[in-house]
Amino acid sequence: MDVESVVENSFGRFCGSFEPLFDSKLEGYIDHPVYCPPILNRKATKIIRKSDEACFNDRLLTLYPYSLQKREGILIQIGDGWGEVAPLPGFSKESLADARCELLAFAKDQTPPISPSVKWGLSCALKPYDTSPCEIPLCAYQTPFPGCTHLKLKVGALSLDQAIEKIRPYVGKYRLRIDCNRSWTLDTALLFAERFSSSDFDYLEEPVGSFDDLIRFSSVTQFPVAVDESFREGCAYWKIPTLAAVVVKPMLLGGIPDLPHVPIILSSSMETSLGLVQIARFANPKYCHGLHTFRKDFLSPPLRADNGRLITEAHTIDLGLL
Known about the structure:
Layout: H1 3-8, E1 12-16, E2 54-55, E3 61-63, E4 66-68, E5 71-78, E6 81-85, H2 96-109, H3 116-125, E7 134-137, E8 139-141, E9 150-154, H4 160-167, E10 175-179, H5 186-194, E11 201-205, H6 211-221, E12 225-227, H7 229-232, E13 243-248, H8 250-253, E14 264-266, H9 273-280, E15 299-300, E16 304-306, E17 309-312, E18 316-317
Parallel strand pairs: 1-2, 8-9, 9-10, 10-11, 11-12, 12-13, 13-14
Antiparallel strand pairs: 1-5, 3-4, 5-6, 7-17, 15-18, 16-17
Helix pairs in contact: 5-6
């Protein structure tokens, strides 16, 4: 059997719709060239093993600003390591077919991957699967859950008055992260700031449409600001006077940047529990992260949350649960 045929049989897809661990919708995303752990110089065709194709559940997921009925990806195993390659439709530049071609090329002759999802998945698979327990504080999304201290609200599709009405009940009860998806003009953002205090928020994520206006908003209001799209586009985010955080989605970014003087808030891209556990290993427990996944997939025992924290244990990967 030729090498490509061997590799062809080495990959399997997971596909299905999932029941959320929390009833959470999708957050913003990042796509920016960053450091990715080096790929080991060994013949992947001999160590990438088959994972079965199957469906999880049958439930529609509604994601802002679109709906996705089936989440697909590729699970890879290299020795004792596991990785997940799952481009997110509408957000990732590469398709699942693109990612699969890159994986086949890597397995055949060590061709370095280009796509972020492949870089991230291989970097995880080329390290032994970590089963040590950890607890990561979680940021609630749209709706508070027991034990949470931070709450993220998306208001980009709302009018200014609607946004204020949505936010007001939570002020003082939670550290608020407001995601505007760059939908406001500078004037609108300044009017918003007049209705609140900067201390009401953990940060405002990309409130205005241009980076120049983002710097102006930060300078005038002194409200804490987080970047996502601006970081992806290579803007000089360090020039923001009140920069509070950089939001990173490793599946869309290809890795996790080294920013020693800026808090990095990790965010998931609808990964399986395996992918979420791997992101959690890099999360700084000083901060609350946007790691939301699904109740049912192939980790045993299942991933769980308790008192506002994501709890990882000595999970085993049981493909029989697919």
